[in-house]
Structure formats: structure tokens, C-alpha cells
């Protein structure tokens, strides 16, 4: 089970994501870093464990404001060799291709940002593209056709339960297992609600290959020993 730390960026700072209520997010306070600067937090995470990937949510870009590009590149410089997965709200295929051509990072296409299926349909064979299937409660965020047709999905699929992010409510095991059953041959990544090592093991049993985690790493509920 690969653990992939999440860094949520808003106004140039790392914020503590809770329940998907982005307007209430505040700069993070963490034992892993003396500041909320993205590069400092990323470096602190890598001191905890040799993570191979970091997931970055550019919340400003997702909500239509100016992207935190400088902060993301600062992270890349601070943790060379780590694969960055960036969700920046891209919903246009041409913009996605241009973005991929301008950097070495991976692009997360979030379903909540999509108006149709054409963007992911055109990008599903691109090895640096991941799809995030976003849910609020039982409601899928995005075009229903995208959820209904697994043939549209790329090789890596994130199952994002937004209401459980930072809520210490535990992962949505049933939803993860459901997507795993519909996505043979794909890497399925759980996201939202992980509290401890027991949750990691449960997600693994549900068929997830990896999991996105934030709060439990910063509070110490997931320790370096738990990650081995």
C-alpha cells in the first residue's frame, strides 16, 4: 500500500483541508514544518518517510483564480525525484496538453471540474494523467457519463470522498471497493478519511493500491513505522 501525502495550496500557503469546505481552510499547523510554506511542508513530509509521490491540490486554480505555479515549482525544487500529482482544475483538453508539455509533473483531472467527457476521453492514454472521481456524500461531482463508463478511465483512478477529507471519519470502503470492481487492471487510489494504520490495511483489503493522506501524517496518527 503506497501512501501519497496531500498538499493543499491556497493563497500560496499549505492549508488544512476539512470536509471539502474550501472557504474555511486555514494555513496548516504541523509538527513536520515550522511554516506553512509549500516547499517547507513538502520537505518535512520527506523527512518523515521517503515518499515517491506527492499529491498537490491547487485550490485557487480549481476555483478559477490564479494558479499557485510558483509554489508548485518550489516544491519540485525542494523534493527532487518525487513525482508530483497536480490537480489544478483543468477542464480543457488543449490546456491540459499545453500544461503537460510545459512540465514533468502528472496531471490530475478532477471530475468536479469537468463539463463533459471529452477532455478525459482525449487524455486517457496519456501516462501522466490521472482521473479523480469526486464525491460529496452519495453525490458524484461531475458528468454522470464519466462515472458510468469505466472505458473512459485512465490507468490510475482516484476515489475522492470530499466530505471525509480531514474529518477523521474513516475511508469510504464500500465506494473504493465498488470502483475497484469496475476498474480491472487499473490502479485505484483511495482518498479521504484515513485515520491510522488500520485504515490503510482496510483499504488494501478493499483493493486499493494506494491512498492519499494528509491530516493523519501531520497529527502523528500515522507514524514513520506505520508507513513501512
What can be said about this structure in brief?
With 228 residues, the protein is of the alpha/beta class. 30% of the residues lie in helices and 25% in strands.
Number of helices: 9
Q: How much is the average pLDDT?
A: 93
Radius of gyration: 16 Å
**How many strands, which pairing sense, and closed or not: the largest β-sheet?**
8 strands, parallel, barrel
Note the overall shape.
globular
Helix content: 25-40%
How far is it from the N-terminal to the C-terminal residue, by CA? 9 Å
Structural class: alpha/beta
Question: Which residues sit in consecutive blocks of at least 5 with pLDDT less than 50?
Answer: none
Number of strands: 11
Q: Strand fraction band?
A: 25-35%
- Strand numbers in spatial order across the main sheet: 1-4-5-6-7-9-10-11
Could you state the order of secondary-structure elements as H and E?
EEEHEHHEHEHEEHEHEHEH
Could you give the topology of this structure?
Blueprint: E1 2-10, E2 13-16, E3 26-27, H1 38-48, E4 53-58, H2 59-62, H3 69-78, E5 83-87, H4 93-101, E6 106-110, H5 118-123, E7 129-136, E8 139-141, H6 144-148, E9 156-161, H7 173-182, E10 187-191, H8 197-205, E11 210-213, H9 215-219
Parallel strand pairs: 1-4, 1-11, 4-5, 5-6, 6-7, 7-9, 9-10, 10-11
Antiparallel strand pairs: 1-2, 2-3, 7-8
Helix pairs in contact: 1-3
Amino acid at each position: 500500500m503506497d501512501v501519497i501525502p496531500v498538499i493543499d495550496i491556497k493563497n500560496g500557503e499549505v492549508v488544512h483541508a476539512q470536509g471539502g469546505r474550501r472557504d474555511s481552510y486555514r494555513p496548516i499547523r504541523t509538527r513536520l514544518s515550522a511554516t506553512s510554506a509549500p516547499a517547507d511542508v513538502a520537505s518535512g513530509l520527506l523527512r518523515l518517510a521517503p515518499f515517491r509521490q506527492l499529491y498537490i491540490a491547487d485550490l485557487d486554480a480549481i476555483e478559477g483564480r490564479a494558479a499557485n505555479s510558483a509554489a508548485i515549482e518550489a516544491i519540485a525544487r525542494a523534493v527532487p525525484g518525487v513525482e508530483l500529482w497536480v490537480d489544478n482544475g483543468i477542464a480543457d483538453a488543449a490546456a491540459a496538453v499545453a500544461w503537460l508539455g510545459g512540465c514533468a509533473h502528472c496531471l490530475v483531472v478532477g471530475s468536479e471540474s469537468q463539463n463533459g467527457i471529452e477532455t478525459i476521453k482525449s487524455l486517457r492514454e496519456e501516462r501522466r494523467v490521472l482521473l479523480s472521481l469526486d464525491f460529496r456524500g452519495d453525490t458524484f461531482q461531475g458528468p454522470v457519463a464519466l462515472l458510468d463508463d469505466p472505458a473512459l478511465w485512465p490507468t490510475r483512478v482516484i476515489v475522492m470522498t470530499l466530505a471525509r477529507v480531514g474529518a477523521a471519519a474513516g475511508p469510504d470502503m464500500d465506494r473504493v471497493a465498488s470502483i475497484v470492481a469496475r476498474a480491472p487492471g487499473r490502479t485505484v487510489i483511495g482518498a479521504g478519511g484515513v485515520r491510522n494504520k488500520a485504515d490503510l490495511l482496510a483499504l488494501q483489503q478493499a483493493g486499493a493500491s494506494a491512498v492519499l493522506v494528509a491530516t493523519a501524517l501531520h497529527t502523528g496518527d500515522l507514524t514513520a513505522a506505520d508507513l513501512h
